[in-house]
Design a protein that fits this description.
2 domains; two-stranded parallel ribbon; 4 strands
């Protein structure tokens, strides 16, 4: 979602120009989570858009205010920009999913991962993130000889000390919450 909402400009750059020294891995459930989160975001955006449209309508009906015409004009202009931003977000989401599907290994969900997530709750407030974490832990265990780092902007869940400890236990040596920090670290490794 950080790519979709424009909070991580470096992330899309990383996906567009992926270094041969980097192998991306993503749980398959992350695709569904991104689509679901975007659906929720669109509902919020559409609610705001409807409120803005109502305000435009109300402002146009105000015949006594000396500011109503200018306000109506600017609100309509804002609505146009707002709709364009939503279209940009849709494009960024589709591009990110497309690039990830091409460039990243997908961790398939399996019964063992589901059972592990049910039996060990490392992220209590978000069962989906707990499932995602167990996908990552399972994959890391099965690739024990490879060097691994973790990149997620979800600091609230994945920044928890018990989560970071679990990542360390399976050989994920570094956690990055920002793509810029990951890219800086990657550059320092060469």
């Amino acid at each position: 979602m950080s790519i979709t909402t424009g909070r991580e400009a470096e992330a899309i750059i990383l996906l567009r120009d992926l270094s041969s020294s980097v192998e991306l891995v993503i749980p398959s459930t992350c695709y569904m989570e991104a689509l679901s989160a975007f659906e929720d975001e669109l509902k919020r955006q559409n609610s705001f858009k409807e409120q803005l449209s109502r305000q435009i309508s109300e402002t146009k009906r105000d015949v006594t205010s000396e500011h109503a015409a200018a306000l109506s004009f600017h609100l309509e202009e804002s609505l146009l920009y707002y709709v364009e931003r939503i279209d940009e977000m849709k494009f960024r989401l589709r591009e990110a999913i497309s690039l990830m599907s091409i460039n990243a290994e997908m961790i398939a969900l399996n019964p063992e991962i589901v059972q592990a997530s049910l039996n060990e709750t490392l992220i209590e407030k978000d069962p989906t993130d707990n499932l995602i974490l167990h996908c990552i832990l399972s994959h890391a265990r099965s690739h024990s000889t490879e060097s691994k780092v973790f990149l997620s902007g979800n600091v609230k869940e994945f920044g928890l000390s018990k989560v970071r400890d679990a990542l360390q236990e399976v050989g994920i040596t570094k956690y990055f919450s920002r793509t810029e920090d990951f890219l800086g670290w990657l550059q320092s490794q060469s």
